[in-house]
Write the structure tokens for this entry.
Amino acid sequence: MTHVTLQRVMVRMLFDQGFTERVRREPAVALAGLELSEREIDWLLEPDPRAWRADADRPARALSVLLQEYPAALALVVQAHGDLAPVQGYFSSTYFHRIIQDKGSMALAFGDYVVALVAGGAIHDPRVTEVARLEQAIVRLHRQALPRGPEVRLDAPFYRLSPDKALHRAAAGTADLHEAIHGALGTRGKDLGRAVLAVRRLPNLPLGAPATEPLLLELARDDGPRVKFLTAAAEITSELFDLLAFSRVPRDFAALVTEVTRLGADPDEAPEVIAGLIGEGVLTAQSP
């Protein structure tokens, strides 16, 4: 539907004045590949140009929200560069424009953007890559979360990895670094964004790449008036990681027992291992 395409172009113009100028100067080039009628393009060109600049602080507010999603990675950026200047170009980047036009997640695309900045040399601390990827995985888990947790059932025909859990493999030491940075930020009060911008000394923990650590991300809900999601990253064994990766698609109980046995569990204890994962909510009932 072209009106949806038009709305997304308008969002891009509100965030990126450079794009707005290109649309006004060469609309056929700036909007190439988009199904917009001549009349719809005229609607973009008719307003006073100042209208697109009326809220100049819009990108800064959006960045402050992203700061809440990637606090540890951005704290490392601030420590290395003194401010957030390396990431402020996000709203004029292809990552932002593509995700808005395709109706994706601004926060997930931001993680890709930060990783690309490290690869391109714009961010000088290589640890940012691993921490940003971990926080991106947490963002993805939050996005798929339901208001209520899945029901624990021991009599279902099929089971799979709980939607409240996710698997992530990172450079060795990433989870400890992430936790240590959050600990340092937590000492500065409840305003996480302010804490990130004020940080000057963070734990100097190295990462052990190319060695990796398998992580299980676990979502928890608080009991407050609004549903909030807290996520912990716990290192697990490679065998458990492989079993849970196997259970990303629905499996019956027998198949899970066979797999955990193949991975090294005692055949007599394998059913109890699977039952324990179900009882703990790691594996949940699922239709095939």
User: Anything to note?
Assistant: DSSP finds 14 helices and five strands in the chain. Residues 127-144 form the longest helix (18 residues).
